[in-house]
Amino acid sequence: MASIGWVALALAVVCHLAKGAVRARAWRNVLAAAYPDVPIRWRSAFGAYAAGVGLNSILPARIGDLVRLYLMRRRIPGASYPTLASSLLVEAIFDTLVSALLVAWAIDEGLFPWLDVLPRLPSIDWLWAFHHPRAATTIVAVALAAGIALFAWAARHIEAFGRRLAQGVTILRTPREYARRVLAWQLVEWPLRLATLGLFLHAFDMPATVRSTLLTQATQSVATALPLTLAGIGTEQALLV
Predict the structure, then answer these.
(1) pLDDT tens, residue by residue, 1-43
(2) Dihedral (Cα; 149, 150, 152, 157), 10-degree rounding
(3) Cα 196 to the chain's mean position, in Å?
(4) What global pTM score does this model have?
(5) What is the DSSP string of the chain?
(6) ∠30-194-172 over CA atoms, to 5°?
């Protein structure tokens, strides 16, 4: 405990809360464009976002995002899950771009395992289907039946479903509004995100250089894209070790 930098830790918490507040503002603006006739409070968006982040830190597969959508659906009369889900894609555009650049940088610097590990990966035995024809036939039949059922359902519901998905990304139809009400907030959020990581590293007496901070963020980006464990535990360590 004596080695913890309490000032840096306090600043990290402040930056983390500010990051969440800014992120919630951007998402609230996306939802406001999707539901222009419904007053949407920033406080509701922030509460749902905070709950989702908290659950994502203790549950795998980003289950917290589902809770986030559930909470907002209760706050927006007439809201649908497809619309709320597609609203997350709007904020993911810039995040994906920045994350991809960070991961590409880490790979180029040789900080991530890459092509050198591919020869050691297990290969797929495609002869299994010929060795087990009955099981393979059953799997193919089930897959075909599921595909036919899905197609039949889509033929009846896809138009309405598509309209609801499109509603969630309404703000993208006006690039100026997207830049002003979403992208501008994300341009504030990302420096806060990196500052949070750097301060946490410093608080726990770890290297808090620009390079180490960017690498930590790159590993978190990969863990977010592959949400197989609690809060990315294991994925991040595997990339860093």
Answers:
(1) 557 899 999 999 999 999 999 999 999 999 999 999 999 999 9
(2) 140
(3) 18
(4) 0.79
(5) -TTS-HHHHHHHHHHHHHHHHHHHHHHHHHHHHHSTTS---HHHHHHHHHHHHHHHTTSSTTHHHHHHHHHHHHHSTT--HHHHHHHHHHHHHHHHHHHHHHHHHHHHTT-S--GGGGGGSPPP-TTHHHHSHHHHHHHHHHHHHHHHHHHHHHHHHHHHHHHHHHHHTGGGGSHHHHIIIIIHHHHHHHHHHHHHHHHHHHHTT----HHHHHHHHHHHHHHHHS--SGGGTTHHHHHH-
(6) 20
* Contact of 16 with 196, CB cutoff 8 Å: yes
User: From CA 188, how far away is CA 178, in angstroms rounded?
Assistant: 15
Two tokens, residue 141: 């039949």
pLDDT at residue 110, rounded to an integer: 83
Residues 6+ apart with CB under 8 A from 216: 197, 201, 236, 240
Half-sphere exposure of 224 (CA within 13 A, CB side): 15
- What is the C-alpha to C-alpha distance for residues 32 and 21, in angstroms, rounded to an integer? 16
What is the distance between the alpha carbons of residues 241 and 237, in angstroms, rounded to a whole number? 6
**Does position 119 have pLDDT exceeding 80, yes or no?**
no
